[in-house]
Amino acid sequence: MRITLLGTGTSQGVPVIGCKCDVCQSSDPRDNRLRTSIMVETEGKTIVVDTGPDFRQQMLSENVNQLDAVLFTHEHKDHMAGLDDIRAFNFIQRKEMTVYASDRVQKALKRDYFYAFEEKKYPGVPQIHLTDLHNEPFEVEGINIIPIEVMHYKMPVFGFRFGDFTYITDANYISRKEKEKIKGSKVMVINALRKTDHISHFTLDEAVDLVNELDVEEAYITHISHQMGLHKEVENELPQNIHLGYDGLKIEL
Ligand SMILES: [Zn+2]
Ligand SMILES: [Zn+2]
Q1: 18 CA to centre of ligand 1 in angstroms
Q2: What pLDDT shows up at residue 240?
């Protein structure tokens, strides 16, 4: 299985438009962060978790020419705004895109992309096959996936476990029951926005504590704000088994 971090930035991305801070002005490519998303490639299939506003650019930079399914964590714009660009895959693969989403996310998709769900569709609109996502294990093209329900302030968000790999984004609380699903993972990607408190995201310390608590061997931080600091400096402050993620990073397991 190969995981690619397609984007590791918070909702504004890094650099932030108009910002003159050291991180936004950095020449280190690891300080440039598109909006958070991952790609999972296994058993000849390709799945993307979330299609944020940078989805098109992410598909182009990773040369993706096959996409079998999209899973949504939640309906915030930084995770959903790029869905229209699955049209390219509709065209190449000559079929609808299978999209897994909770009831609440499906409602948002039908509102934001109303034209894709009309009875008489305008030619060329995205072809989306909505599939229900509940907090129960499911299978996508033979790949077993366990959803993990985490809290993003007051909003339930889905993380996902694929075999020995767990992906959690946009969380600031995980119940004891849901934590049990993560235990035993070899690698985890987990969100941390910055070092100081945030209402709906883990801080860096909270994410590090969680990795230690759950006994995960190796972890990568995602959904990073420009307020986190320079990649190079923050990376040096972290324990050996925990790293800041960066766009394009590949994890093989
Ligand atoms: Zn900045
Ligand atoms: Zn987000």
Answers
A1: 8
A2: 97
